[in-house]
């Protein structure tokens, strides 16, 4: 079992910045992949950013150049740095990890990000 706890969501004005953090209950070296997804009202959950164990990153086209995914090995966290936020970035953001070998998926509880003036 893996517990994931997200933090850092909130209300921000357009053009502002937020950093989301996801703390894992065990070493992030046990994960083949770590990522952030989001789900806006009435829409399907979508990939925002993903990092595989080797460090390769993938971003949704809509966030490229604005969002950056990073990890802190010492704190067992995966972070999402969001800049130049737009109203269309409003959603519940979920942390996701895939465990090495078993490929089990784990999700955090989600954190709300609202971009509005």
Report what the structure shows:
The chain is mainly beta. Helices cover 0% and strands 53% of the residues. The protein has no helices and 11 strands. Strands 2, 4, 5, 6, 9, 10 and 11 form a 7-stranded mixed beta sheet that branches. A 4-stranded antiparallel beta sheet has the order 1-3-8-7, with no helix packed on it. It is globular and about 45 Å long. The N and C termini lie far apart (40 Å).
Briefly summarize what is shown.
The chain has 117 residues and is mainly β.
Notable characteristics:
11 strands; mainly beta; 4-stranded antiparallel beta sheet; 117 residues; globular
Oligomer: single chain
Shape: globular
Question: What is the count of β-strands?
Answer: 11
What is the percentage of strand-forming residues?
A: over 45%
Can you write the helix and strand succession as a string?
EEEEEEEEEEE
How many whole angstroms does the radius of gyration measure? 13 Å
Question: What is the fold's blueprint, element by element?
Answer:
Layout: E1 4-7, E2 10-12, E3 18-24, E4 31-39, E5 46-52, E6 57-59, E7 67-72, E8 77-82, E9 91-99, E10 105-107, E11 111-115
């Amino acid at each position: 079992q893996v517990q994931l706890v997200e933090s850092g969501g909130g209300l921000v004005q357009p053009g502002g910045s937020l950093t989301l953090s996801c703390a894992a209950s065990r070493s992030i070296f046990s994960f083949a992949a770590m990522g952030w997804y989001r789900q806006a009202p009435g829409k399907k959950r979508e990939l925002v950013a993903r990092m595989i164990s080797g460090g390769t990153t993938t971003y949704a086209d809509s966030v490229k150049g604005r969002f950056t995914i990073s990890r802190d090995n010492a704190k067992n966290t995966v972070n999402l740095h969001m800049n130049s936020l737009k109203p269309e970035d409003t959603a519940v953001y979920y942390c996701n990890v895939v465990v090495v070998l078993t490929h089990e998926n784990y999700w955090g509880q989600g954190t709300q990000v609202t971009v509005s003036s």
